[in-house]
Amino acid sequence: MSTPTHTDDGLTIGPVQMLVVGFVGDKFSGEIREELERLKEHDIVRLIDLLFVKKNDDGDIEVVQTSDLDQDEAEEFGALVGALIGFGAGGEEEAERGAIAGASELEDGHVFDDDAVWYLSDAIPEGTAAAVALLEHRWAIPLRDKIARAGGVTLSDAWIHASDLVAIGLVGAAAGADA
Hints:
This protein is an alpha+beta fold. The chain has one domain (16-153). Helix content is 46%, strand content 20%. The protein contains six helices and four strands. It has helices at residues 31-41, 71-90, 92-105, 114-123, 140-149, 162-178; strands at 16-24, 45-55, 61-66, 128-137. A four-stranded antiparallel β-sheet has the order 1-4-2-3. A hairpin with a 5-residue loop joins strand 2 (45-55) and strand 3. The chain is globular, with a radius of gyration of 20 Å.
């Protein structure tokens, strides 16, 4: 359902996307971070958390973790997410418990913990890297709120990637060949 997500003090959170990206080699020039900064400056996206794990050819691990949220924002985000999960699990009483647990979970300012670091480092081969990012789509907040004020509800949403369109074309071409 498309419902604005506000706390009593006005904190608004936009749709959050989890993006997982793999990299082969070491072609990092800072362009990705610069683009994330540009998107943040224009209030298009906000980086809730980013975990980057790189494994060199010797198997040594390099870890970078960053967030656009300050300490208070991270705890507010954790409380909001915890409250929503709690509310869904058991109503208002569970929402309060979830908010407390969520705020506590993000006291260190990050969603991804040491277990995620070790999971990623075990999952990637030497000479590669992986990044997991939680991106808040700030641009979508006003649109979502206007849809909700008009009584609209989300019936479905999905990301359509170029590879999905190629796959549809391949399926269509195969079906045409069979006819």
